[in-house]
Amino acid sequence: MRGWPSNLAFGAAFVLTLACGRGAHAQSSAAAGAMDDWFTGEQNEAYVFFGLGVVSAGTGSYLLTRGTAFSRGAGYTALAFGAVEMLFATTYSLGLDPKHDELKSDLDADPAKFLRDERKRMYAIADRFVLYRYSELGILAVGAGMASYGFAAKKPTLAGIGVVAGAHAALVLTLDYFAESRANRYIKALEGVRPEASSLPLQTSRRGVGFYAPVMTGTW
Q1: CA 19, CA 110: separation in Å to the nearest integer?
Q2: N or C: which end of the chain has fewer CB within 10 A?
Q3: Are 99 and 117 in contact (CB under 8 A)?
Q4: DSSP code of 204?
């Protein structure tokens, strides 16, 4: 009878430890699921970008056969955009799986460190989307201005360049809107994860983060 208090305390401690272990596992599983969703979305968008590049290059090739000044300006511009989009999509897609595997290993090895590093990486990505948005809006404005001036001044080559540049900027701006929304959902999921060993604050300052980072939205 005299040993029952210590036995009760031991039992309570065991149950508490088991519950904490299950909670930490559930939190790690939630982080892994959110990460999988992010990388799946990025892979799908890479395919969309590659398809956009193929269509752009095909359209450009067709326009170059038309033999007009407008079609030449539009055709060469479409070919250039298409080549860049296909190159970006290919290299980006190839880098996603290795990065995903690396992050899954990091999560298994040290969930707290994974959260710290992954939040920092995603905050940088979210910041860069602001730069992308303004750059795309700038290209859209320049394209619209070139097209307007080209049509008004009877400079069809310039008009063709402006039309294609503006159209591509509008398409990429739309795609980046969905990518940015997906990034913010992932960030919210990361901020909601609280493994036992983590001492991270709910919010981390994002001021100035991302302006020195490589221009790749999901791999780095």
Answers
A1: 19
A2: N
A3: no
A4: -
Give Dmax (Cα) for the chain: 102
The single-letter code of the amino acid at 56 is: S
The model's pTM is 0.74
Q: Which segments of the chain does DSSP mark as H helices, in order?
A: 4-64, 69-109, 111-152, 156-191
Q: Six-digit token pair at 170?
A: 């509008």
Find the Cα–Cα–Cα–Cα dihedral 137, 216, 205, 136, rounded to 10°: 0
Q: Which DSSP symbol is given to 196?
A: T
- Phi, psi (5° rounding) for residue 2? -70, -20
Instruction: Give the whole-angstrom CA distance, residue 167 versus residue 73.
Output: 14
Helix pair 4-64, 156-191: axis angle to 10 deg: 170
Structure confidence by residue, pLDDT tens digits, 51-101: 999 999 999 999 999 989 999 999 999 999 999 999 999 999 999 999 999
Contact 149, 158 (CB under 8 A): yes
Radius of gyration of the chain (CA): 25
